[in-house]
Structures are given as C-alpha cells and as structure tokens.
Amino acid sequence: HYSITSDMGFICGRHPEHDRVWIAGGGSGHGFKHGPAFAERAVAAMTGAAEPEPRFALGPRMAGRSLRTAGWKPPAG
C-alpha cells in the first residue's frame, strides 16, 4: 500500500476530537529513509518535549510541485 499527502509531507498531530490520540503518517517512499528522524520528532511532540511541527499539522494542504503528487495544477497566469 502506498499513501502520500497532497504536498508529499508527513502528518503528525492530535486528533481534533480526542486529545490523547495522535495521527501520524504520510511517509510512503520517503518515509523509509526518514522514518527514524520523523519518529524522534513525533515522540518529542507527543510527550511535550518539543512543539509539534506546524508543517506536519492536520488540515488542508497545498498540492506540491512534484509529478508524483496527484491533483497539482500549474498556477494560473
């Protein structure tokens, strides 16, 4: 199974309705090589040792420029 976010970034944030539940993922492909470093950042955020990384937050994302990113359209103009 291959999953990826529209901006090709990771996801790591609290569930919007359950304070003690975190959602983390989005690492298909590049997650293999970045997994250990991403896990360190995720654990630090989950334990309160560091602030959560804003770019990994849940919510709307802008499509990336990569050809692998579904839904990307060139800017108008």
Strand-helix topology:
Blueprint: E1 11-14, E2 22-25, H1 30-47
Antiparallel strand pairs: 1-2
Give a description of the structure:
- This protein is α+β, with helices and mostly antiparallel strands and 77 residues long.
- The protein contains one helix and two strands, in the order ββα.
- It has one helix at 30-47, and strands at residues 11-14, 22-25.
- It has a two-stranded antiparallel ribbon.
- The longest helix has 18 residues, at 30-47.
- The radius of gyration is 14 Å and the shape is globular.
- The model has no long low-confidence stretch (mean pLDDT 80).
Mean pLDDT, to the nearest integer, reads 80
- Number of DSSP helical runs: 1
The count of β-strands is 2
Name the helicity range: 10-25%
Shape: globular
Indicate the structural class: alpha+beta
Low-confidence stretches: none
Strand-residue fraction?
5-15%
Span between termini: 37 Å
Q: Write the H/E string, N to C.
A: EEH
Q: Going across the biggest sheet, name each strand in turn.
A: 1-2
